Amino acid sequence: MDYPLLKDKRGIIFGALDEKSIAWQVALSAQKAGAKIVLTNAPVAIRMGKTKQLSEQLDTILIAADATKTEDLNDLLIKSIEYLDGKIDFILHAVGMSPNIRKKREYTDLDYKYFQQTIDVSALSFHKLLQTAWQLDALSPQASVVALSYIAAQKVIPGYGDMADAKTVLESIARNFGYYYGKKNGTRINTVSQSPTVTTAGSGIDGFQSFYDYAHQMSPLGNADAESCANFCVMLFSDYTKMITMQNLYHDGGFSKMGMNIDSLSNE
Ligand SMILES: NC(=O)c1ccc[n+]([C@@H]2O[C@H](COP(=O)([O-])OP(=O)(O)OC[C@H]3O[C@@H](n4cnc5c(N)ncnc54)[C@H](O)[C@@H]3O)[C@@H](O)[C@H]2O)c1
Fold this sequence. Notes:
Low-confidence stretches: none
Strand order of the largest sheet: 3-2-1-4-5-6-7
Number of helices: 11
Radius of gyration: 18 Å
Bound molecules: nicotinamide-adenine-dinucleotide
């Protein structure tokens, strides 16, 4: 798909840790669609992951920012506007982490300090980003901001732990901030609810392979992969979706609309 949908647009991509990251694919697709982008990730992720390699491949800059720190976000936005030579047209928030999941704490035995970190990293960081950009007036008119979510915000997926609560808050922030930004300058704020995808964050969840397989069999189109998610994000960043805002958009091969799929049982 080689359409210059993002020609002359300037964007910031959070969360490209390695080739498997959804954000990695979004960065590739956005640049292919003609955008000029800045990459960002947490300092520790930059040390451990491959974000720097991607910035070299795309010949762009990488700015370290912990998405839970407003001073880092402020610095990121100011430097990005300077480097891109104008206000920001689109942002991908692909940030998620749960210490409870990492430490295999069940939903019935959560550590509350970890729980706060989960919410801070995976949900409040989105509010902090939007509020910092609001205060700096960093987004251009009719900009587009997308955060990645998961259906555990609406339906119970045992094993997804406190990330389910974080995704619910994330989607609520998109809806509420979407109102204020829409009124301000036509900026759109949406979440994309993506199929299970094999990435570092995804595979860290207990039983991930089972619910990956289950969702794949239940969905008439199968699971959506990271590349198709990236193409969908590019469309949402483009001028073709100027009237879509405050939505949670399922990019899941039809999974969210399924009740029962007897075929999936007989295929086992
Ligand atoms: N993989 C899936 O099955 C799936 C499904 C639906 C939604 N998502 C969501 O997609 C997003 C991207 O995850 P992914 O699956 O590509 O995994 P990933 O592990 O490749 O990406 C997660 C990113 O979050 C970054 N991050 C963590 N803490 C941070 C902080 N404090 N500041 C800045 N960045 C921080 C990590 O460095 C990493 O780059 C997440 O929000 C995730 O919940 C994933």
